[in-house]
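Lab channel / #folding
Pinned by the channel admin:
"Please post every new chain as: sequence first, then the structure tokens as a reply. Keep commentary short and put observations after the output so the thread stays searchable."

First post following the new format, from NK:
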Amino acid sequence: MTALELFAGAGAAALGLARAGYTHLACVERNAAAAATLHAAGLPALEADVRAVDFTAWRDRIDLLWASPPCQPGSTAGQRLGAADERDGWPATLATIDACRPTWFLAENVLGWTYHTDLCGGSSGSCPACHLARIADELARRFPFTGAWQLDAADLGVPQRRRRVVLWGGPLPLDLAGPTLTHAHPAAAGTLGRRPWVTMRDAIGDTLTRASCDRRACYPCDEEHGRACGEPWRLDAPAPTVTTMDEKGTRANAVAGWTFNGGPDRASDAAFLVAGIRRIDIAEGLRLQGLPDDWPLQGTVHDRYVQVGNAVPPALAEACGRLVAGAHHAWTALRSSNLDPTALAGALRRHRLTVPAHLGAAP
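Reply from TO:
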């Protein structure tokens, strides 16, 4: 299957899709450092603004279009301006769909896009959830079947709690629950027939120790620094979300009275609680995202922290890609039998049938 990727970042989603069997025709990314990482990883990088690319060259050649538009217009960590934010990438994504007409579509983003702002009235252009609802309506005009999944990367074996919304569209209805989940909270894993969550200890337990304080900033383990070093049990759970702000480190500091103002919600917050460490390093961020240790990040330290914080865990992209691939094989078989697509879609809707998630499960 062929794939075209928008807002490709450092190529983490591309790695997951490649593991699911896709061949990328292009990975579009405007940030120079991230595009250099794509090149170094052997991916077909196109350094360009998505809005400035003529995608008609790929018309009817794309099996899957993947997009990860900028999260800032919908993120709860920002002003949440929705369509009023100049960084809104959803219109460019819709324009790309119109230009290249992919068979399938997947888009990943922060869960903040699903939250309404106060007093939005259900129609405000500056409300992320209202804007996303309009995008969903636009997708429904372009694909016979569409939907959305809410996924946590920890449920797919990533050592990090990273909740995301994934929009999809295509010629067949996909499983309403999304791809097959492989992991769960240890208390429920056995009952669900899954493996326990992968933990921080599994991923970075060899580096997230006081012994590493000889090479990076750490706080004393004393009462004057709040909960520093006071919750080592967090090593035996997935990390909070890895973010671009992990470059600045934990939100616990003297000005905030060593609290997290509602957290801990950064991976570096957990590092502080486990061992008094101010911030995770880039190598630890790679592991918590599920990327290989030798992923060839390019650019400055700041560039690399941004790339890691913005990455889509490969396992999440792979799981979604596998479900689409399973559905695509079914779609190819149905088309070869000369079934009328409109009649087929009507029958599927009447009987409320979907492509089961197990068709995309990893072998």
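NK: Residues 200-310 form one domain.
TO: also worth noting, The beta strands are 2-6, 23-29, 45-47, 64-67, 104-110, 145-152, 163-170, 183-184, 195-196.
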